[in-house]
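Hi V.,

You were right to ask for the full record rather than a summary. Here it is.
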Amino acid sequence: MVLELAASAGTFEIKDGSFLLDGKPYRIYGGEMHYARIPREYWRHRIQMAHAMGCNTLSIYVFWNYHESAPGVWDWKNDNHDLRAFVELAKEEGMYIVLRPGPYTCAEWDFGGLPYWFAGTRVRTNDPAFLDSCRTYLREVYRQVDGLFVEQGGNIIMTQVENEYGSFSFDRQFAVSHRQRRIYMERMADIFRKEGFSHTLFTCDGGVVPVVNFARLGHIKGLFPGTNDSKFLRVAHHTVQKFYSRKGPYYIPEEYAGWFTHWGDAHVFHRDVESYKKHIEELLQTDFSFCYYMVHGGTNFGFWNGANHRAQNDVWPVITSYDYGAPIGEAGNRTPLYDSLRAVYQRHTGEKLAEVPGPVRSMSIDKIALNCVQSTMRRKPFIYKHAPTMEQAGHPYGYMSYEKTFSEAVKGRLSTAGLTDYALLYVNDSLIATIDHDMPAGKVRKNITVNIPATGKLKILVENMGRINFGKKLWENHRGATLSITLNGQAINDWVVTPVADDLIPAHTVQVPYCAGQPVYYEGAFILTDTADTYLDMHGFGKGVVVVNGHNLGRYWEIGPQYSLYVPGVWLHKGENQISILDMLGHKQQYYITATDHPVNR
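Predicted structure:
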Protein backbone atom coordinates (compact mmCIF):
# COMPACT_ATOMS: atom_id res chain seq x y z
CA MET A 1 0.00 0.00 0.00
CA VAL A 2 1.40 3.42 -1.02
CA LEU A 3 1.15 6.01 1.75
CA GLU A 4 -0.26 9.42 0.96
CA LEU A 5 2.15 12.03 2.36
CA ALA A 6 0.63 15.27 3.55
CA ALA A 7 0.66 18.12 1.04
CA SER A 8 0.43 20.78 3.73
CA ALA A 9 3.29 22.06 5.86
CA GLY A 10 4.35 19.69 8.62
CA THR A 11 7.02 19.41 11.26
CA PHE A 12 10.02 17.20 11.90
CA GLU A 13 11.89 17.67 15.16
CA ILE A 14 14.00 15.95 17.77
CA LYS A 15 12.40 16.09 21.20
CA ASP A 16 12.25 13.99 24.36
CA GLY A 17 14.70 11.47 22.93
CA SER A 18 12.68 10.79 19.77
CA PHE A 19 12.24 11.87 16.19
CA LEU A 20 8.82 13.51 15.95
CA LEU A 21 7.02 13.81 12.62
CA ASP A 22 4.02 16.11 12.91
CA GLY A 23 4.29 15.67 16.66
CA LYS A 24 4.20 11.86 16.59
CA PRO A 25 7.18 9.49 17.18
CA TYR A 26 8.80 8.48 13.90
CA ARG A 27 11.33 5.72 13.48
CA ILE A 28 13.43 5.94 10.33
CA TYR A 29 13.56 2.61 8.56
CA GLY A 30 15.49 3.77 5.58
CA GLY A 31 17.39 2.71 2.51
CA GLU A 32 20.16 4.49 0.60
CA MET A 33 20.01 4.75 -3.18
CA HIS A 34 21.62 7.22 -5.58
CA TYR A 35 19.65 8.63 -8.49
CA ALA A 36 22.92 9.14 -10.41
CA ARG A 37 23.52 5.38 -10.40
CA ILE A 38 20.06 4.40 -11.68
CA PRO A 39 18.58 5.01 -15.16
CA ARG A 40 15.88 7.63 -14.74
CA GLU A 41 13.29 5.38 -16.33
CA TYR A 42 13.81 2.91 -13.45
CA TRP A 43 13.65 5.39 -10.57
CA ARG A 44 10.03 4.63 -9.70
CA HIS A 45 10.59 0.88 -9.82
CA ARG A 46 13.58 1.06 -7.45
CA ILE A 47 11.70 3.34 -5.03
CA GLN A 48 8.74 0.96 -5.05
CA MET A 49 11.09 -1.98 -4.38
CA ALA A 50 12.52 -0.24 -1.31
CA HIS A 51 9.04 0.69 -0.07
CA ALA A 52 7.81 -2.90 -0.45
CA MET A 53 10.74 -4.06 1.71
CA GLY A 54 9.42 -1.88 4.52
CA CYS A 55 11.46 1.29 4.03
CA ASN A 56 9.64 4.51 4.88
CA THR A 57 12.57 6.79 4.05
CA LEU A 58 15.20 7.09 1.32
CA SER A 59 18.65 8.48 2.02
CA ILE A 60 20.30 10.07 -1.03
CA TYR A 61 23.71 11.55 -1.76
CA VAL A 62 24.01 14.52 -4.10
CA PHE A 63 27.29 14.38 -6.04
CA TRP A 64 28.65 17.86 -6.68
CA ASN A 65 30.84 16.84 -9.63
CA TYR A 66 27.89 15.10 -11.27
CA HIS A 67 26.01 18.39 -11.46
CA GLU A 68 28.84 20.89 -12.08
CA SER A 69 30.85 19.53 -15.01
CA ALA A 70 33.04 22.65 -15.32
CA PRO A 71 33.22 25.79 -13.18
CA GLY A 72 29.81 27.43 -13.42
CA VAL A 73 28.36 24.80 -15.77
CA TRP A 74 25.41 23.15 -14.00
CA ASP A 75 23.07 20.34 -15.00
CA TRP A 76 20.03 19.61 -12.83
CA LYS A 77 17.62 18.40 -15.53
CA ASN A 78 19.10 16.08 -18.15
CA ASP A 79 18.66 12.32 -17.82
CA ASN A 80 19.63 11.20 -14.29
CA HIS A 81 20.55 14.69 -13.07
CA ASP A 82 17.08 15.82 -11.99
CA LEU A 83 17.36 15.80 -8.19
CA ARG A 84 14.04 17.55 -7.74
CA ALA A 85 12.19 15.04 -9.88
CA PHE A 86 13.61 12.14 -7.85
CA VAL A 87 12.58 13.67 -4.53
CA GLU A 88 9.08 14.43 -5.84
CA LEU A 89 8.79 10.89 -7.21
CA ALA A 90 9.71 9.50 -3.79
CA LYS A 91 6.89 11.55 -2.26
CA GLU A 92 4.43 10.15 -4.78
CA GLU A 93 5.47 6.69 -3.59
CA GLY A 94 4.98 7.57 0.09
CA MET A 95 8.68 7.93 0.99
CA TYR A 96 10.43 10.57 3.07
CA ILE A 97 13.94 11.77 2.18
CA VAL A 98 17.16 12.23 4.12
CA LEU A 99 19.25 14.58 1.97
CA ARG A 100 23.05 14.18 1.96
CA PRO A 101 24.62 16.85 -0.28
CA GLY A 102 28.16 16.65 1.11
CA PRO A 103 29.89 18.71 -0.27
CA TYR A 104 32.14 15.65 0.26
CA THR A 105 30.28 12.35 0.03
CA CYS A 106 32.82 9.51 -0.37
CA ALA A 107 30.36 6.85 -1.70
CA GLU A 108 33.05 5.15 -3.84
CA TRP A 109 32.38 7.95 -6.32
CA ASP A 110 35.11 9.82 -8.20
CA PHE A 111 36.89 12.21 -5.77
CA GLY A 112 34.13 11.62 -3.23
CA GLY A 113 31.84 13.85 -5.29
CA LEU A 114 34.20 16.85 -5.38
CA PRO A 115 34.84 18.54 -8.76
CA TYR A 116 38.03 17.50 -10.53
CA TRP A 117 39.52 21.02 -10.54
CA PHE A 118 40.07 20.77 -6.77
CA ALA A 119 42.71 18.06 -7.34
CA GLY A 120 45.93 19.01 -5.58
CA THR A 121 44.23 21.46 -3.21
CA ARG A 122 43.43 21.18 0.49
CA VAL A 123 39.79 20.28 0.20
CA ARG A 124 37.69 19.95 3.36
CA THR A 125 39.62 22.71 5.12
CA ASN A 126 39.12 26.40 5.86
CA ASP A 127 40.68 27.40 2.55
CA PRO A 128 38.60 30.47 1.53
CA ALA A 129 38.38 29.47 -2.13
CA PHE A 130 37.11 26.01 -1.22
CA LEU A 131 34.54 27.37 1.24
CA ASP A 132 33.32 29.94 -1.29
CA SER A 133 32.85 27.19 -3.88
CA CYS A 134 30.98 25.08 -1.34
CA ARG A 135 28.70 28.03 -0.67
CA THR A 136 27.93 28.35 -4.39
CA TYR A 137 27.29 24.62 -4.68
CA LEU A 138 24.96 24.46 -1.67
CA ARG A 139 23.08 27.49 -2.96
CA GLU A 140 22.49 25.57 -6.20
CA VAL A 141 21.35 22.47 -4.29
CA TYR A 142 18.90 24.50 -2.24
CA ARG A 143 17.41 26.03 -5.38
CA GLN A 144 16.60 22.53 -6.56
CA VAL A 145 14.93 21.37 -3.33
CA ASP A 146 13.33 24.60 -2.13
CA GLY A 147 9.70 23.78 -1.36
CA LEU A 148 10.37 20.07 -0.82
CA PHE A 149 11.07 20.09 2.93
CA VAL A 150 8.46 18.73 5.34
CA GLU A 151 8.06 22.22 6.78
CA GLN A 152 7.07 23.35 3.25
CA GLY A 153 4.69 20.48 2.59
CA GLY A 154 7.37 18.26 1.02
CA ASN A 155 9.07 15.06 2.13
CA ILE A 156 12.68 15.99 3.07
CA ILE A 157 13.00 15.49 6.84
CA MET A 158 16.75 15.96 7.52
CA THR A 159 19.89 17.21 5.77
CA GLN A 160 23.40 16.00 6.49
CA VAL A 161 26.31 18.44 6.87
CA GLU A 162 29.56 17.16 5.28
CA ASN A 163 30.27 13.43 5.66
CA GLU A 164 32.38 11.35 8.04
CA TYR A 165 34.60 14.30 8.80
CA GLY A 166 35.80 12.65 12.02
CA SER A 167 37.76 9.98 10.16
CA PHE A 168 39.29 12.62 7.87
CA SER A 169 40.36 15.01 10.63
CA PHE A 170 41.57 12.12 12.81
CA ASP A 171 44.24 11.32 10.21
CA ARG A 172 47.46 12.91 11.49
CA GLN A 173 48.74 13.70 8.00
CA PHE A 174 46.27 16.56 7.71
CA ALA A 175 48.46 19.17 9.38
CA VAL A 176 45.81 21.40 10.89
CA SER A 177 44.99 21.87 14.54
CA HIS A 178 41.98 20.42 16.30
CA ARG A 179 40.58 23.95 16.57
CA GLN A 180 40.96 24.51 12.81
CA ARG A 181 39.12 21.28 12.13
CA ARG A 182 36.35 22.32 14.44
CA ILE A 183 36.11 25.72 12.75
CA TYR A 184 35.76 24.00 9.36
CA MET A 185 32.69 22.06 10.47
CA GLU A 186 31.25 25.13 12.19
CA ARG A 187 31.70 27.16 9.01
CA MET A 188 30.22 24.41 6.90
CA ALA A 189 27.12 24.23 9.13
CA ASP A 190 26.86 28.01 8.95
CA ILE A 191 26.94 27.87 5.14
CA PHE A 192 24.12 25.32 5.15
CA ARG A 193 21.98 27.54 7.37
CA LYS A 194 22.68 30.73 5.41
CA GLU A 195 21.86 29.05 2.09
CA GLY A 196 18.43 28.02 3.33
CA PHE A 197 18.85 24.68 5.09
CA SER A 198 17.27 25.89 8.32
CA HIS A 199 15.51 22.67 9.28
CA THR A 200 17.00 19.59 11.02
CA LEU A 201 20.73 19.25 10.31
CA PHE A 202 22.87 16.30 11.35
CA THR A 203 26.37 14.88 11.06
CA CYS A 204 27.44 11.37 10.17
CA ASP A 205 30.61 9.64 11.34
CA GLY A 206 32.11 6.19 11.13
CA GLY A 207 31.13 3.66 13.76
CA VAL A 208 34.57 2.09 14.00
CA VAL A 209 37.31 2.19 16.63
CA PRO A 210 38.14 4.73 17.91
CA VAL A 211 34.53 5.94 17.73
CA VAL A 212 35.15 8.49 20.52
CA ASN A 213 37.73 10.31 18.39
CA PHE A 214 35.68 10.12 15.21
CA ALA A 215 32.62 11.49 16.94
CA ARG A 216 34.51 14.25 18.72
CA LEU A 217 36.27 15.42 15.57
CA GLY A 218 33.34 15.08 13.19
CA HIS A 219 30.53 16.51 15.24
CA ILE A 220 29.79 20.06 16.34
CA LYS A 221 27.47 21.43 18.97
CA GLY A 222 23.89 21.98 17.90
CA LEU A 223 23.76 19.37 15.15
CA PHE A 224 22.22 15.95 15.66
CA PRO A 225 24.89 13.19 15.51
CA GLY A 226 24.54 9.96 13.57
CA THR A 227 27.02 7.08 13.73
CA ASN A 228 27.49 4.50 10.99
CA ASP A 229 27.44 0.73 11.40
CA SER A 230 25.40 -0.81 14.17
CA LYS A 231 27.93 -3.42 15.28
CA PHE A 232 28.84 -1.15 18.20
CA LEU A 233 25.19 -0.50 18.95
CA ARG A 234 24.35 1.40 22.08
CA VAL A 235 27.90 1.74 23.42
CA ALA A 236 29.02 3.76 20.43
CA HIS A 237 25.84 5.78 20.26
CA HIS A 238 25.87 6.68 23.94
CA THR A 239 29.37 7.99 23.31
CA VAL A 240 28.11 10.10 20.43
CA GLN A 241 25.17 11.34 22.42
CA LYS A 242 27.52 12.91 24.96
CA PHE A 243 27.84 15.65 22.40
CA TYR A 244 24.10 16.04 22.01
CA SER A 245 21.23 15.33 24.43
CA ARG A 246 22.40 12.17 26.23
CA LYS A 247 18.89 10.84 25.63
CA GLY A 248 18.77 9.90 21.96
CA PRO A 249 17.26 9.25 19.55
CA TYR A 250 19.82 6.94 17.97
CA TYR A 251 20.34 7.02 14.21
CA ILE A 252 22.58 4.91 12.00
CA PRO A 253 22.89 6.72 8.64
CA GLU A 254 24.77 3.76 7.15
CA GLU A 255 23.80 0.29 8.30
CA TYR A 256 25.93 -1.77 5.92
CA ALA A 257 23.75 -4.20 4.01
CA GLY A 258 26.75 -5.02 1.80
CA TRP A 259 30.11 -3.71 0.66
CA PHE A 260 31.84 -2.50 -2.47
CA THR A 261 34.25 -4.44 -4.69
CA HIS A 262 37.62 -3.42 -6.17
CA TRP A 263 39.15 -4.52 -9.45
CA GLY A 264 41.31 -7.55 -8.72
CA ASP A 265 39.37 -8.65 -5.63
CA ALA A 266 38.90 -12.39 -5.19
CA HIS A 267 35.17 -12.13 -5.87
CA VAL A 268 32.24 -9.73 -6.09
CA PHE A 269 30.88 -9.10 -2.60
CA HIS A 270 27.94 -11.21 -1.43
CA ARG A 271 26.23 -10.90 1.95
CA ASP A 272 25.63 -13.96 4.16
CA VAL A 273 21.84 -13.79 4.35
CA GLU A 274 21.22 -15.71 7.56
CA SER A 275 23.75 -13.91 9.73
CA TYR A 276 22.65 -10.50 8.50
CA LYS A 277 18.98 -11.34 9.01
CA LYS A 278 19.70 -12.17 12.66
CA HIS A 279 21.62 -8.92 13.02
CA ILE A 280 18.69 -6.87 11.72
CA GLU A 281 16.28 -8.79 13.96
CA GLU A 282 18.38 -7.73 16.95
CA LEU A 283 18.50 -4.13 15.69
CA LEU A 284 14.72 -3.96 15.24
CA GLN A 285 14.32 -4.94 18.88
CA THR A 286 16.13 -1.74 19.90
CA ASP A 287 14.84 1.82 19.53
CA PHE A 288 17.38 2.64 16.81
CA SER A 289 16.49 4.33 13.55
CA PHE A 290 18.69 3.18 10.70
CA CYS A 291 19.24 3.26 6.97
CA TYR A 292 20.53 0.37 4.86
CA TYR A 293 23.65 1.32 2.94
CA MET A 294 22.88 0.35 0.26
CA VAL A 295 19.30 -0.81 -0.17
CA HIS A 296 20.02 -0.57 -3.92
CA GLY A 297 23.47 0.25 -5.25
CA GLY A 298 23.04 0.52 -9.01
CA THR A 299 25.93 1.10 -11.40
CA ASN A 300 28.98 3.33 -11.77
CA PHE A 301 28.18 4.23 -15.35
CA GLY A 302 30.75 6.16 -17.38
CA PHE A 303 33.86 7.12 -15.39
CA TRP A 304 32.13 7.87 -12.08
CA ASN A 305 33.67 5.09 -9.99
CA GLY A 306 36.01 6.16 -7.23
CA ALA A 307 39.11 4.50 -5.84
CA ASN A 308 40.66 3.85 -2.47
CA HIS A 309 44.25 3.96 -1.27
CA ARG A 310 45.95 1.36 0.82
CA ALA A 311 49.51 0.83 1.93
CA GLN A 312 50.30 -1.79 -0.68
CA ASN A 313 48.50 -0.10 -3.59
CA ASP A 314 48.79 3.46 -4.91
CA VAL A 315 45.26 3.29 -6.27
CA TRP A 316 42.59 0.66 -5.72
CA PRO A 317 39.70 1.42 -8.10
CA VAL A 318 36.15 0.25 -7.57
CA ILE A 319 34.48 -1.88 -10.23
CA THR A 320 31.71 -0.62 -12.51
CA SER A 321 28.94 -2.53 -10.75
CA TYR A 322 27.79 -0.95 -7.50
CA ASP A 323 25.59 -3.94 -6.73
CA TYR A 324 27.11 -3.77 -3.21
CA GLY A 325 25.54 -7.09 -2.22
CA ALA A 326 22.46 -4.97 -1.51
CA PRO A 327 18.93 -6.38 -1.01
CA ILE A 328 17.87 -4.90 -4.37
CA GLY A 329 20.41 -6.05 -6.96
CA GLU A 330 22.20 -3.91 -9.52
CA ALA A 331 19.41 -4.33 -12.09
CA GLY A 332 16.62 -3.85 -9.54
CA ASN A 333 16.29 -7.59 -9.02
CA ARG A 334 14.78 -9.13 -5.91
CA THR A 335 17.47 -11.05 -4.00
CA PRO A 336 17.29 -13.66 -1.20
CA LEU A 337 18.50 -10.90 1.15
CA TYR A 338 15.56 -8.74 0.07
CA ASP A 339 13.02 -11.45 0.83
CA SER A 340 14.66 -12.20 4.16
CA LEU A 341 14.72 -8.58 5.35
CA ARG A 342 11.17 -7.98 4.12
CA ALA A 343 9.95 -10.97 6.12
CA VAL A 344 11.86 -9.85 9.24
CA TYR A 345 10.33 -6.39 9.04
CA GLN A 346 6.79 -7.73 8.61
CA ARG A 347 7.20 -10.14 11.49
CA HIS A 348 8.55 -7.44 13.79
CA THR A 349 6.06 -4.68 12.92
CA GLY A 350 2.99 -6.62 11.85
CA GLU A 351 2.53 -4.13 9.01
CA LYS A 352 1.00 -5.13 5.72
CA LEU A 353 3.58 -4.10 3.15
CA ALA A 354 3.02 -3.04 -0.42
CA GLU A 355 3.20 -5.74 -3.06
CA VAL A 356 6.68 -6.27 -4.47
CA PRO A 357 6.86 -4.86 -8.02
CA GLY A 358 7.24 -7.36 -10.78
CA PRO A 359 10.78 -8.09 -11.96
CA VAL A 360 12.45 -6.17 -14.74
CA ARG A 361 12.81 -8.57 -17.64
CA SER A 362 16.24 -9.64 -18.86
CA MET A 363 17.34 -11.33 -22.06
CA SER A 364 20.31 -12.76 -23.92
CA ILE A 365 21.58 -11.45 -27.24
CA ASP A 366 23.34 -13.69 -29.73
CA LYS A 367 26.51 -12.72 -31.54
CA ILE A 368 26.86 -9.02 -32.37
CA ALA A 369 29.38 -8.64 -35.19
CA LEU A 370 32.21 -6.16 -34.56
CA ASN A 371 34.50 -4.29 -36.93
CA CYS A 372 37.83 -2.64 -36.16
CA VAL A 373 37.62 1.06 -36.96
CA GLN A 374 39.53 4.28 -36.64
CA SER A 375 38.46 7.89 -36.67
CA THR A 376 38.57 9.85 -39.89
CA MET A 377 38.65 13.03 -37.79
CA ARG A 378 41.69 13.20 -35.50
CA ARG A 379 40.97 14.78 -32.16
CA LYS A 380 42.62 18.15 -31.71
CA PRO A 381 46.04 17.79 -30.06
CA PHE A 382 47.69 20.43 -27.88
CA ILE A 383 51.38 21.28 -27.52
CA TYR A 384 52.77 21.51 -23.97
CA LYS A 385 56.36 22.23 -23.00
CA HIS A 386 55.96 20.03 -19.92
CA ALA A 387 53.69 17.01 -19.80
CA PRO A 388 50.50 18.27 -18.05
CA THR A 389 48.16 16.51 -15.68
CA MET A 390 44.72 15.78 -17.00
CA GLU A 391 43.35 18.56 -14.82
CA GLN A 392 45.83 21.09 -16.21
CA ALA A 393 44.68 20.11 -19.69
CA GLY A 394 41.04 20.59 -18.64
CA HIS A 395 40.28 16.93 -19.26
CA PRO A 396 38.54 15.47 -16.20
CA TYR A 397 37.95 11.78 -16.96
CA GLY A 398 38.96 8.96 -19.23
CA TYR A 399 42.23 8.84 -21.15
CA MET A 400 45.11 11.11 -22.20
CA SER A 401 47.70 10.51 -24.91
CA TYR A 402 51.21 12.00 -24.66
CA GLU A 403 53.45 11.85 -27.75
CA LYS A 404 57.03 12.95 -28.35
CA THR A 405 58.99 12.56 -31.59
CA PHE A 406 62.81 12.51 -31.28
CA SER A 407 64.91 13.93 -34.11
CA GLU A 408 67.92 11.89 -32.99
CA ALA A 409 68.26 8.37 -31.64
CA VAL A 410 68.12 8.16 -27.84
CA LYS A 411 68.28 5.36 -25.33
CA GLY A 412 68.48 4.99 -21.58
CA ARG A 413 66.30 5.04 -18.49
CA LEU A 414 62.86 6.61 -18.79
CA SER A 415 61.39 7.68 -15.44
CA THR A 416 57.66 6.93 -15.19
CA ALA A 417 57.22 7.64 -11.48
CA GLY A 418 54.74 10.43 -12.18
CA LEU A 419 52.36 8.41 -14.35
CA THR A 420 49.18 7.60 -12.46
CA ASP A 421 46.77 4.69 -12.37
CA TYR A 422 47.31 2.78 -15.62
CA ALA A 423 49.58 3.62 -18.54
CA LEU A 424 50.75 1.97 -21.75
CA LEU A 425 54.12 2.98 -23.28
CA TYR A 426 54.87 2.58 -26.98
CA VAL A 427 57.87 3.23 -29.20
CA ASN A 428 56.83 3.54 -32.84
CA ASP A 429 53.52 1.85 -32.00
CA SER A 430 55.18 -1.16 -30.36
CA LEU A 431 54.15 -1.69 -26.73
CA ILE A 432 57.23 -1.67 -24.50
CA ALA A 433 55.79 -1.41 -20.98
CA THR A 434 52.64 -1.28 -18.82
CA ILE A 435 52.40 0.79 -15.66
CA ASP A 436 49.70 -0.49 -13.28
CA HIS A 437 49.28 1.26 -9.93
CA ASP A 438 46.63 -1.25 -8.88
CA MET A 439 49.52 -3.65 -8.26
CA PRO A 440 51.38 -3.82 -4.93
CA ALA A 441 53.44 -0.63 -4.70
CA GLY A 442 56.77 -2.45 -4.73
CA LYS A 443 55.94 -4.03 -8.07
CA VAL A 444 54.92 -0.83 -9.89
CA ARG A 445 57.54 -0.04 -12.52
CA LYS A 446 59.09 3.41 -11.99
CA ASN A 447 61.83 3.21 -14.62
CA ILE A 448 61.75 1.76 -18.14
CA THR A 449 64.70 1.13 -20.44
CA VAL A 450 64.00 2.59 -23.88
CA ASN A 451 65.77 2.59 -27.22
CA ILE A 452 64.20 5.13 -29.58
CA PRO A 453 65.56 5.44 -33.14
CA ALA A 454 66.00 8.72 -35.02
CA THR A 455 62.59 10.24 -35.90
CA GLY A 456 61.11 7.67 -33.53
CA LYS A 457 57.99 8.38 -31.52
CA LEU A 458 57.39 7.75 -27.84
CA LYS A 459 53.69 7.50 -26.98
CA ILE A 460 52.16 7.17 -23.52
CA LEU A 461 48.45 6.43 -23.07
CA VAL A 462 47.28 7.08 -19.50
CA GLU A 463 43.92 6.05 -18.06
CA ASN A 464 42.34 7.81 -15.09
CA MET A 465 40.92 4.81 -13.22
CA GLY A 466 38.95 6.98 -10.77
CA ARG A 467 40.14 9.57 -8.28
CA ILE A 468 40.66 8.63 -4.64
CA ASN A 469 37.41 9.06 -2.71
CA PHE A 470 38.62 8.32 0.82
CA GLY A 471 41.82 8.45 2.81
CA LYS A 472 45.29 9.91 2.73
CA LYS A 473 45.48 10.71 -0.98
CA LEU A 474 42.42 12.97 -1.11
CA TRP A 475 44.61 16.08 -1.18
CA GLU A 476 46.51 14.84 -4.22
CA ASN A 477 44.26 13.26 -6.87
CA HIS A 478 45.91 14.69 -9.99
CA ARG A 479 45.70 12.23 -12.87
CA GLY A 480 47.88 11.75 -15.94
CA ALA A 481 51.52 12.88 -15.76
CA THR A 482 51.95 14.33 -12.26
CA LEU A 483 55.74 14.68 -12.47
CA SER A 484 58.15 15.49 -15.28
CA ILE A 485 58.83 12.54 -17.53
CA THR A 486 62.60 12.26 -17.73
CA LEU A 487 65.08 10.33 -19.83
CA ASN A 488 68.47 9.75 -18.20
CA GLY A 489 67.53 12.37 -15.62
CA GLN A 490 66.66 15.10 -18.16
CA ALA A 491 63.09 16.31 -18.53
CA ILE A 492 61.46 15.58 -21.87
CA ASN A 493 59.82 18.71 -23.25
CA ASP A 494 57.46 19.66 -26.08
CA TRP A 495 54.75 17.04 -25.84
CA VAL A 496 51.83 16.58 -28.21
CA VAL A 497 48.92 15.90 -25.86
CA THR A 498 45.55 14.56 -26.99
CA PRO A 499 42.67 14.18 -24.52
CA VAL A 500 40.45 11.30 -25.54
CA ALA A 501 36.92 12.68 -25.73
CA ASP A 502 34.47 11.83 -22.97
CA ASP A 503 32.26 9.82 -25.31
CA LEU A 504 35.38 7.87 -26.35
CA ILE A 505 33.95 6.84 -29.68
CA PRO A 506 34.99 8.59 -32.92
CA ALA A 507 32.18 10.48 -34.61
CA HIS A 508 33.19 9.29 -38.09
CA THR A 509 34.99 6.03 -38.67
CA VAL A 510 36.41 3.83 -41.37
CA GLN A 511 37.10 0.13 -41.12
CA VAL A 512 40.79 -0.74 -40.66
CA PRO A 513 42.84 -3.92 -40.18
CA TYR A 514 43.36 -5.17 -36.62
CA CYS A 515 46.81 -4.34 -35.21
CA ALA A 516 47.88 -6.60 -32.34
CA GLY A 517 48.93 -4.89 -29.12
CA GLN A 518 47.42 -1.52 -30.06
CA PRO A 519 44.32 0.10 -28.58
CA VAL A 520 41.38 -1.01 -30.71
CA TYR A 521 38.07 0.67 -31.48
CA TYR A 522 35.28 -1.75 -32.31
CA GLU A 523 31.85 -0.84 -33.54
CA GLY A 524 28.82 -2.86 -34.48
CA ALA A 525 25.09 -2.68 -35.09
CA PHE A 526 22.43 -5.13 -34.00
CA ILE A 527 18.69 -5.45 -34.55
CA LEU A 528 16.24 -6.15 -31.71
CA THR A 529 12.57 -7.05 -31.99
CA ASP A 530 12.14 -6.66 -28.23
CA THR A 531 14.02 -4.90 -25.43
CA ALA A 532 14.95 -5.97 -21.90
CA ASP A 533 17.90 -5.67 -19.55
CA THR A 534 20.98 -7.61 -20.59
CA TYR A 535 24.65 -8.09 -19.69
CA LEU A 536 27.50 -7.85 -22.19
CA ASP A 537 29.93 -10.72 -21.70
CA MET A 538 33.42 -9.16 -21.82
CA HIS A 539 35.45 -12.38 -21.78
CA GLY A 540 38.16 -12.16 -24.42
CA PHE A 541 38.47 -8.38 -24.18
CA GLY A 542 41.31 -6.75 -22.25
CA LYS A 543 40.53 -3.41 -20.65
CA GLY A 544 38.33 -0.54 -21.71
CA VAL A 545 34.83 0.87 -21.91
CA VAL A 546 31.64 0.19 -23.85
CA VAL A 547 29.10 2.65 -25.25
CA VAL A 548 25.65 1.47 -26.35
CA ASN A 549 23.35 3.91 -28.14
CA GLY A 550 25.35 6.80 -26.75
CA HIS A 551 25.32 5.55 -23.13
CA ASN A 552 28.70 4.85 -21.55
CA LEU A 553 28.16 1.59 -19.63
CA GLY A 554 31.45 1.91 -17.73
CA ARG A 555 34.72 0.05 -17.51
CA TYR A 556 35.62 -3.60 -17.97
CA TRP A 557 38.94 -5.27 -17.12
CA GLU A 558 40.12 -8.79 -17.69
CA ILE A 559 41.43 -9.11 -14.10
CA GLY A 560 37.83 -9.27 -12.82
CA PRO A 561 36.04 -10.12 -10.66
CA GLN A 562 33.38 -8.42 -12.81
CA TYR A 563 33.24 -9.91 -16.31
CA SER A 564 30.05 -8.40 -17.70
CA LEU A 565 28.52 -4.95 -18.11
CA TYR A 566 24.91 -4.18 -17.27
CA VAL A 567 22.85 -2.76 -20.16
CA PRO A 568 19.53 -1.29 -18.98
CA GLY A 569 16.76 -2.34 -21.32
CA VAL A 570 15.43 1.23 -21.38
CA TRP A 571 18.63 2.21 -23.23
CA LEU A 572 17.95 -0.27 -26.04
CA HIS A 573 15.65 0.24 -29.05
CA LYS A 574 13.42 -1.98 -31.08
CA GLY A 575 15.15 -1.97 -34.42
CA GLU A 576 18.79 -0.97 -34.90
CA ASN A 577 21.16 -0.42 -31.97
CA GLN A 578 24.77 0.74 -31.98
CA ILE A 579 27.65 -0.57 -29.87
CA SER A 580 31.15 0.87 -29.64
CA ILE A 581 34.07 -0.51 -27.64
CA LEU A 582 37.47 0.92 -26.83
CA ASP A 583 39.83 -1.88 -25.84
CA MET A 584 43.16 -0.48 -24.61
CA LEU A 585 45.05 -3.74 -24.80
CA GLY A 586 44.01 -5.31 -28.10
CA HIS A 587 45.32 -8.75 -27.12
CA LYS A 588 43.38 -10.56 -29.81
CA GLN A 589 40.95 -9.47 -32.46
CA GLN A 590 37.33 -9.88 -31.37
CA TYR A 591 34.86 -10.56 -34.16
CA TYR A 592 31.70 -10.49 -32.08
CA ILE A 593 30.31 -9.98 -28.60
CA THR A 594 27.38 -11.69 -26.86
CA ALA A 595 25.09 -10.74 -24.00
CA THR A 596 23.52 -12.89 -21.29
CA ASP A 597 20.42 -12.54 -19.12
CA HIS A 598 22.45 -12.50 -15.89
CA PRO A 599 25.68 -10.91 -14.59
CA VAL A 600 28.94 -12.79 -15.09
CA ASN A 601 31.24 -12.50 -12.08
CA ARG A 602 33.85 -14.40 -10.17
